[in-house]
Design a protein that fits this description.
Layout lengths: L6 H5 L13 H6 L6 H12 L6 H9 L6 H5 L6 H15 L5 H14 L2 H16 L2 H7 L17 H4 L4 E3 L7 E5 L4 H5 L1 H13 L2 E5 L8 H5 L3 H14 L6 E3 L2 H8 L1 H5 L2 H9 E3 H8 L11 E4 L3 H6 L5 H6 L6 E2 L15 H4 L1 H18 L3 E3 L3 H10 L7 E3 L1 H5 L8
Parallel strand pairs: 2-3, 2-4, 4-5, 6-7, 6-8, 8-9
Antiparallel strand pairs: 1-3
Helix pairs in contact: 3-4, 22-23
């Protein structure tokens, strides 16, 4: 199996030193070599060398990987594990597609629903009606959905929070520049309020914000699932949508990593140039500086770094730099700041037990930190952390942009 990224050649950079083991969340829970980065690379290499005939024997180990890429940070040899894994997953899917019902349904939803903004908006409107009729409660009550999933699947916000932000928004005060804002697919429907806050934050800091109506899903969920061509289609669509934007900002680490790495996915100069223009909103604000002072926020705050921000995009200090500028804030450290929380897109819905154990470890560390508020720049992480904290903990979960708004804006 060959592709644009030669996964076999890239795998040879791994010297099996084992420094990745402690960084791997699945190895930390399961303690199995086959569920570690080193072990998975060995399996993928054996497959390429035709030393393994049964693809189904190794597929579960590859699918149990969260693709958090913490192993890339730990690796002294610079092994590009995430690209190797995604390439092999896609090669396997093209050569031998999964035929089980769950995979077929997931493929159908990603290809024909998530990748189409209009259909997704309609689905969420219908979902909102179903919740109003009590069908969500009934599904959990009669066992159609596992009770533990209730906390992981957020309530659908009212229509006002799910509306499209497509348009052009003028800067306040002296204009410092123009930026494009990527609003995402599920992000728009579940965390639309965060998109509004992001827009308002940029406007308040002197930037004209352009939100193209033709933008679509970033393709990350499809790529993680091995649907490479689907991810390429959405990537090409977004290249056209943001063609006139010199800077493209996002507020979701998973989307940001996919946008930033679109050059590798498509392999064109245009795509590489687009990826170079993409920035996380906190990274951008740390670079240009805050023109509007944030409102005071006198609370103990723990910053939890999304894996696809710190490990994939290598953005570590920027969120903390801008958060330190919030008057009254007390940033409290915790030892698992760059450890995976177990969300990983839809991983916590597909691998519920394993994700739950990883999530419980994260929640325990956050409780021990003494934080009153946890901030994380990825919606999946926010949902996962919120689901594993107990209501009695009294710990709020927020997005960093919510703490950066100036005083004339409402953070609630």
């Amino acid at each position: 199996m060959k592709s644009e990224v030669d996964s076999y050649t890239a795998s040879l950079d791994c010297v099996h030193c084992g420094l990745c083991l402690e960084a791997c969340p699945t190895y930390g829970v399961l303690g199995l070599e086959t569920d570690s980065p080193r072990g998975r690379i060995y399996l993928m290499r054996a497959l390429a060398e035709d030393r393994i005939d049964d693809v189904d024997a190794i597929r579960p180990h590859l699918e149990q990987c969260l693709d958090c890429r913490a192993c890339e940070t730990a690796c002294p040899s610079g092994v590009r594990y995430g690209h190797i894994l995604e390439t092999v997953r896609a090669d396997l899917e093209e050569a031998r597609p999964r035929r089980d019902l769950a995979s077929r349904v997931r493929r159908l939803l990603l290809r024909h629903l998530v990748a189409h903004q209009g259909r997704l908006r309609l689905a969420f409107r219908l979902g909102r009606v179903a919740e109003a009729l009590g069908l969500r409660w009934l599904a959990f009550r009669i066992g159609l959905l596992p009770r533990k999933m209730d906390a992981l699947v957020p309530r659908i916000p009212p229509a006002a929070e799910r509306r499209s932000l497509a348009g052009r928004y003028p800067a306040k005060g002296e204009k410092r520049g123009t930026v494009g804002l990527f609003t995402g697919c599920v992000m728009e429907q579940v965390f639309g309020r965060i998109n509004v806050v992001t827009r308002d934050l940029l406007v308040a800091n002197g930037f004209e914000v352009v939100v193209p109506a033709s933008q679509t899903c970033c393709g990350a969920l499809s790529l993680h699932d091995g649907q490479r061509e689907d991810a390429r289609r959405t990537a090409r669509h977004n290249l056209q949508a943001f063609a006139d934007c010199d800077v493209v900002l996002n507020n979701s680490a998973g989307c940001g990593a996919a946008l930033r790495e679109v050059g590798e996915l498509l392999g064109t100069d245009e795509a590489h140039a687009f990826g170079a223009r993409c920035r996380d909103v906190t990274e951008f604000l740390a670079e240009v500086g805050l023109a509007a002072e944030p409102a005071p926020f006198p609370h103990k705050v723990a910053y939890d770094a999304p894996c696809h921000l710190c490990h994939a995009q290598k953005v570590r200090t920027a969120p903390l730099e801008v958060l330190r500028q919030v008057p009254g804030i007390e940033l409290v450290p915790h030892p698992t700041s760059e450890d995976c929380c177990g969300s990983a897109g839809i991983y916590n819905l597909v691998h519920r037990q394993l994700a739950a154990e990883i999530g419980d470890r994260k929640a325990a560390a956050l409780r021990a930190s003494g934080a009153q508020v946890v901030v994380s720049g990825n919606p999946g992480c926010m949902m996962q952390i919120r689901a594993h904290l107990d209501p009695g903990d009294g710990i709020e979960v927020r997005h960093p942009v919510e703490l950066l708004l100036p005083s004339q804006h409402d953070r609630t």
